[in-house]
Amino acid sequence: xxxxxxxxxxxxxxxxxxxxxxxxxxxxxxxxxxxxxxxxxxxxxxxxxxxxxxxxxxxxxxxxxxxxxxxxxxxxxxxxxxxxxxxxxxxxxxxxxxxxxxxxxxxxxxxxxxxxxxxxxxxxxxxxxxxxxxxxxxxxxxxxxxxxxxxxxxxxxxxxxxxxxxxxxxxxxxxxxxxxxxxxxxxxxxxxxxxxxxxxxxxxxxxxxxxxxxxxxxxxxxxxxxxxxxxxxxxxxxxxxxxxxxxxxxxxxxxxxxxxxxxxxxxxxxxx
Length: 272
Fold this sequence. Notes:
Helix 7 (161-189) packs antiparallel against helix 8 (194-213). Strands 3-2-1-4-5-6-7-8 form an 8-stranded mixed beta sheet, with helices on both faces. By secondary structure, the protein is of the alpha/beta class. The chain has helices at 10-21, 37-47, 55-61, 71-80, 100-106, 137-150, 161-189, 194-213, 219-226, 232-244, 247-270; strands at 3-6, 30-33, 50-51, 64-67, 90-93, 110-115, 126-131, 152-155. Its main location: cytoplasm.
C-alpha cells in the first residue's frame, strides 16, 4: 500500500516519523510533498521516502492520501486536483473543521478523518477516527491498522469532534503550559533551580502516566492517596480550587467558538 502525505508541517512530520519508526509502513511506500519542498527533503534525509514535486504527483502515486494542511487549505488542495483522485483510493483529513461529509461531497473515493496527537510521535496516546458513510470496510480496517501502530485509535461522532480534539490533540500543549507555569513558580518562590525543577516535574508526569496506564489508580484515587487530610498537598489543592475557578470551562468555550469560526469558513468552501 502506497501512503501519500500532502503537507509536511508539524503534524505531517509527526505522522511520517511515527509510521516509519513503528514500521507501519516502509519508507519505500511513502510519498510526500510540501509547499516548500525543502522541508519534505529534510524529512526524507532522516527517514527515507519519496519527495514529489506536486500534490497531483502524490495523489496519482498513492493509495491512501493524508491531507495535512491547514483547515482552510484542504478544499483548495482537493479542488485543484479533483481529477487526479480515483474511486479505489482513500482520502484522509487530519483537521477537525473539515468533516467527512464535506470530503465526500466532492471526492469519488472513500473518505475519513484521522486526528493525531503529538503523543503519537512516541507511539502512544490516542488518535481520533471518523469514517464517511461511503468509506469501504477495507479502508476502515486499513486506516485503523495504521493508527494502531502509533496510537490507541478511538472512533468518534461528529458532534464531539472539537472537544475530543481539545483533549487528545490540544491537551499536550495545555498541560505543557500548566507544567511550565508550575516549574516557573517553584523557581520563583523557592531556592530550586529551573533545570532541577524541570527534571523533577517531567519525571513526575512520566510516573503519573505509568500509574494511569497500568490502571493502578484512577485520577480521583490518586488525589485521595496523595492528599492526606490536613497535609501539605491538601493546602495546595485548596489554593488550586480557589484560584483556577472556571478556567477550564472558559478554555473549552474559547476553543468551541474558534471551531465555529473555522467550520463556518469550510462550509462556505464546500457548500455543505
